[in-house]
Sequence to fold (248 residues):
Amino acid sequence: MGLVDWIKSLGSNVLYYPGCLMKGILSTEFENYKEIFNRLKIDYILLSDEEFCCGLSVLNAGYRKDARKLAKKNFDLFKKHSVTKIITNCPMCYHAFKEIYPKLVLDWNIEVEHATVTILEALKKRGVRFRGSDEEKELVSYHDPCYLGRYSGVYDEPRKVIELLGGKIAEMRFNRESALCCGAGGGVRMNFPDVARKVAVERVKSISSNATKIISPCGLCYANLKSASEKSVEFSTFVLGKLRGLGR
Fold:
């Protein structure tokens, strides 16, 4: 970092925003991401005890005024702690901060990055990669979350991370722009759990029988697919397991 960049960085913070599901239920995966960031020397702060829900579910339910209030509270908190960039593992939070907050919050000027992008850049910067042969790679499948894929256009980065760390992706029949929903989104899992599980069962039918894992960088997708297959793992579990194996 040059002198000018160092001066500009003073009084600025990168916030890791895990999202409600990760903080409240998926505590193991929450710890995974923190360990991954620490191993890859990714600097961040946490405001988990102070921050509010991103408000996307509130907005989708039709409560625009309440969503705007949540957004304003978050923005005020972020500014209080000199946050200039947000890293989040939650596709819904990513979409909210990246696409919705600029429409809800006056003067929103915070950079937003999904954790899969952050991790990929850190792996490249540090030269961390699987050094074995192609035959030694683990055959896995990857599920594109709706909010990360179709809503945000993030398709390649998580795949590149998986491949860099020794995964060989056997694509699902429906993937990328044509990917099927896991069945949990839009409040379906919360209100109609049986329907959500039935959709998950159909989704996992499209994976290769030889794939050892179904990887998704969305906590909700991971949890719902887990109800249909024990092969379902959250992105951080795969990444951290490989980093530990590489001694990084």
